[in-house]
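Lecture notes, continued. The same structure-token format from the folding unit now serves as the input rather than the output. Read the line below as a description of shape only.
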């Protein structure tokens, strides 16, 4: 009987060890899955922010060009050249010596 009890103790200890290993392995798999999910979502967010950065850089360049043009206008403000430019660009006026080409 003593041999039977020791065999049962060994089986119980082995089954507890196996159960502990299974629980540990399952927990490790869950932790790795969560880490992978976080990594993937951060990569996607990084790509989205990179695209947004590129869009904003293009918009900034466009606004800088507009700003440069406006600064040029301010530098000639009040001169005959400025008045002519405003008349041509904003009012659609032409000088008497201009040749007008009409589109159909």
């Amino acid at each position: 009987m003593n041999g039977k009890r020791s065999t049962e103790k060994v089986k119980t200890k082995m089954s507890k060890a196996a159960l502990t290993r299974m629980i540990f392995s399952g927990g490790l798999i869950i932790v790795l899955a969560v880490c992978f999910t976080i990594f993937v979502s951060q990569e996607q967010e990084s790509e989205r922010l990179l695209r947004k950065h590129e869009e904003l850089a293009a918009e900034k360049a466009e606004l800088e060009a507009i700003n440069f043009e406006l600064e040029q206008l301010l530098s000639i403000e009040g001169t005959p050249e400025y008045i002519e430019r405003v008349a041509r660009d904003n009012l659609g006026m032409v000088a008497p010596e201009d040749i007008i080409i009409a589109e159909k």
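Point for the exam: DSSP finds two helices and no strands in the chain.
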